[in-house]
Amino acid sequence: MADLIKRKLIYGIGALGLVAGLFILTMGLTYGKIGGTGKHVKLGAEKPPIEQMPPAVQQLSNAFISVAKAVTPAVVQIKVTSTPQAVNVPNGGGAPNGDLFKFFFGPNFPFHNFNMPSPKPQPEVALGSGIIVNPDGYIITNNHVVQGADHDGIKVTLLNRRTYHAKLIGRDPTTDIAVIKIEGHDLPYVSLGNSDSAHVGEWVVAIGNPFGLDYTVTQGIISALGRNIGIIRNQYGIEDFIQTDAVINPGNSGGPLVNLHGQVIGINTAIATNTGSYEGYGFAIPINIAKEVATDLIEHGKIIRPYIGVEIQDIDQTMAKALGMKTAHGVIVQSVESNSPAEKGGIKSGDVILMFDGKEIEHGNQLQALVASKQPGDKATVEILRDGKKEEKTVVLEARSGSQFAVTTSSSNASADLSSLGLSVQSADKATAEKYGKKSGVLVTDVTSGSVADDRGIQKGDLITSVDNQPVKTVDELEKIVKSRKPGNALLFRVTTPSKVSAFLALEIPKK
User: Between 109 and which of 105, 258, 297, 328 could a Cys-Cys bridge form, CB atoms 3.0 to 4.6 Å apart?
Assistant: First the structure.
């Protein structure tokens, strides 16, 4: 009997196991069909809704793909480290009798001799873009991307993730162009187009590193040419921007604006925005200007910029009517500098400049950009309107006396020396110096807030005429004097304000 019960129990368990196995197998197959592995589920249609793209659309798409593949390897990410100057917090903090605690808590406050520590400056990191323009590693970017970089504080990353330390070759605040260099050979580099041939409505591609998003490609059209948006705060600032609706954001600065031939026609520089991000309008420096600046910086170490010597004004419809012109175009000459190329070429105050070197002039910034694209010694034909009649004059361009010093290198660092004082300067031409009642000097174009120069009272627009009783006529002379002094030495500046008030101001070179 026990054996019978045992056999029945075994058979029962076996049958139960068989049922369970069949149940698991059935559920497994069912689950697999429903979606466990997805192997038996068909997702999406087998054919695209549009099997054949219109040829024109396909060609345009292929063009964007080709441009991105061709240009992106020569676009670089630039990481700049800069350390602001230490903020001096004296015991008094500006309070009467030189003691902050005494000022607030009275003379019997027990800790009134407590020394407040000076905050230690922290390095700041910024990102930008650039383009390699020859196989030896020269890179064009924006001045504002690399300005203020620490020594050895510029790092460049290529598309292949290789990273280099870059040397600052030079920079030009008047165009917002700078050149840096990495040590390499047979590097990928871009093709430079002709920005004078760009047209409104032309398709363009912007490539860069917005918000640290590496190698972002956006597309749009050229929406305007010859824009002057007033971002270059410099007496001789040159603005002739290409406007585009290709998406440009912070981090795109210094990257390329490219046509559909894969040629760089601009250096992306700025955006018009109320939020700090893209709102539909981006601006690029024409590559013809950038190329001239970069060539000067590489070959000469400074900008050799020609000038024509005229003060001009755009012509509106009312002025055109007064001048007997049917349409408002060209620029009117307000004044002509004495002994300038314009005066030597026969241009007079009251003339209307209609064309320069075969190109029609619509705005003053356009003429300024055309002159800047030339070299000293170049001849240019200028078509003018005088007393209702058109005439042609030939002008031989000359280098402006005391051209702005633009080099910033680790070995001979004039701009860095002046930056240590918090000064941005440029040589003043004769006409500018005369406005201060002086024959020459160096014009202060900017003063860094909280710097030595700012603390001692030097202001933007002041004219420096001497340092330590040595006359200074050019930036080169000022740089030479500053370089000859050591950190901790004091310099005696003779400064004249725009209201012609002169004063001596002493500046101490900060210790590193």
Answer: 105
- Location of structure tokens 């441009």: 67
Structure-block tokens of residue 503: 């004063």
Q: Cα(18)–Cα(11) distance, rounded to whole angstroms?
A: 10
- Please answer whether residues 350 and 318 qualify as being in contact, where contact means their C-beta atoms are separated by less than 8 angstroms: no
Residue 214 in tokens: 């590496």
Q: What sections of 301-363 are H helices per DSSP?
A: 317-322, 341-344
Tell me the pTM: 0.61
401 and 431 Cβ atoms separated by less than 8 Å: no
Which candidate, 75, 82, 70, places its Cα nearest to that of 214?
Answer: 75
> Which residue type occupies 47?
K
Q: Are 209 and 80 in contact (CB under 8 A)?
A: no
Catalytic residue (choose from 99, 172, 176, 240): 176
Structure tokens at 101: 């605690």
Catalytic residue selected from 253, 403, 424, 440: 253
Contact 432, 440 (CB under 8 A): no
Phi, psi of 59 (to 5 degrees): -65, -40
What six digits make up the tokens of 356?
């320069």
Per-residue model confidence as pLDDT tens digits over 319-350:
788 788 888 888 888 888 888 899 999 999 88
Q: How far apart are CA 411 and CA 137, in angstroms?
A: 19
- Cβ-based neighbour number of residue 388 at 10 Å: 9
Question: Is 151 a catalytic site residue?
Answer: no
Q: Kindly write down the DSSP assignment for every residue of 126-140, as one continuous string.
A: EEEEEEE-STT-EEE
Q: Does the annotation count 351 as an active-site position?
A: no
Task: Give pLDDT tens digits for 388-422.
Answer: 889 999 999 988 654 433 333 333 333 334 777 88
CA dist., res. 425 & res. 168, Å (int): 19
Q: Which tokens go with 215?
A: 């190698």
What residues contact residue 30 under an 8 Å CB cut-off, 6+ apart? none
Inter-CA distances, 390 with 144, 248, 351, 382, Å: 42, 43, 10, 10
DSSP at 263: E
Q: Work out the pLDDT band at 493, boundaries 50, 70, 90.
A: confident
Could you confirm whether 253 is annotated as catalytic?
yes
Catalytic residue among 144, 240, 373, 451: 144
